[in-house]
Amino acid sequence: MVSLEDNETKVMEWIDDHFVMNEIEVENFPFFPCGKLIRDKNGETMVVFWCIIYDRVDYRFQEA
Questions:
Q1: How far apart are CA 16 and CA 30, in angstroms?
Q2: Which residues partner with 48 through β-bridges?
Q3: Cα(34)–Cα(42) distance, rounded to whole angstroms?
Q4: Is the distance from CB of 10 to CB of 19 less than 8 angstroms?
Q5: Dist CA 20 CA 60 (whole Å)
Q6: pLDDT (tens digit per residue) in 5-60
């Protein structure tokens, strides 16, 4: 069985693979499993999290 810590590591690895880390802010976002709120320098946000249904990293963009 995969632990919650393993899934959080996968979320952080996904973020590191897709963003320049010194150009974003990452905060915990506990409304989603292993959720992380990402904010760029323009103030736009998205949430990256572990999807328990599909067993993978998933994300949602800020609504306009």
A1: 19
A2: 36, 59
A3: 24
A4: no
A5: 18
A6: 899 999 999 999 999 999 999 999 999 999 999 999 999 999 999 999 999 999 99
